[in-house]
Amino acid sequence: MSTHPPGAPPPRRLRKEPDERRDQILACARELFSSRPYGTVSNTEIAAAAGVSRGLLNHYFGTKRDLYLAAVSEMMSVPPIPVPAAAEGAGLRERVAQSIGAWLELLERNRETWVTALDTIIAGGDEDLERILQEARDRAVDHMTEVVGLTPVARTHPELRAAFRGYSAMAEATTREWLKRKLLTREQVHLLLEEVLLHLIEEVLPRLTRAAQASSPEPE
Q1: Are 145 and 151 in contact, with CB atoms under 8 Å apart?
Q2: DSSP 15
Q3: Helix (H, G, I), strand (E, B), or coil: what is residue 121?
Q4: Which of 39, 57, 86, 151 has the most other CB atoms within 10 Å of its CB?
Q5: Rounded Cα gap, residues 193 and 102, in angstroms
Q6: For residue 212, what pLDDT is reported?
Q7: What is the dihedral of CA 135, 141, 146, 149, to 10 degrees?
């Protein structure tokens, strides 16, 4: 039964603020891009899912490509899980395993968005997408050095950050083998990334820093 008083004007519909409306459109776009190939999703479908007009969607995002770039940027800007080093008794392997597990969970939830982004980068020609992913790689390197407790060392040894960027490229390629080609399972990807990263930290990086110190010119 309606509680609207007789003779009173009908209640006004609440209008969403622009930022809230934009976030709603972006959330629907991310869901569609993450579950289906990019080419099968249209702006008309995204607008319908968000409950807005096509014109309003275009007002906020312009083209489908612009909306897709915004979706990728938002996905890659998700704050990393807290580094579990603060937890009493957390060892290196535990910190690495937890960080990798959270990253793989993010990619699995956004499967199609991630695969399309990687395919586009491989094909070349999209500088905006490359910039978004490069910024994400830099944040990933920052997070990795924090997880493994090497942030102070990485500030004075750029070869460590370079090595971590190389590891990130391998991680991207490996997840593509899992999510697109289905030649690896998530468990296999996790095992591979965990063991390679631990070997890099424990065996390779110390040798890299010693080599860099040995090749540095002596102060005059």
Answers
A1: yes
A2: P
A3: helix
A4: 57
A5: 13
A6: 74
A7: -160
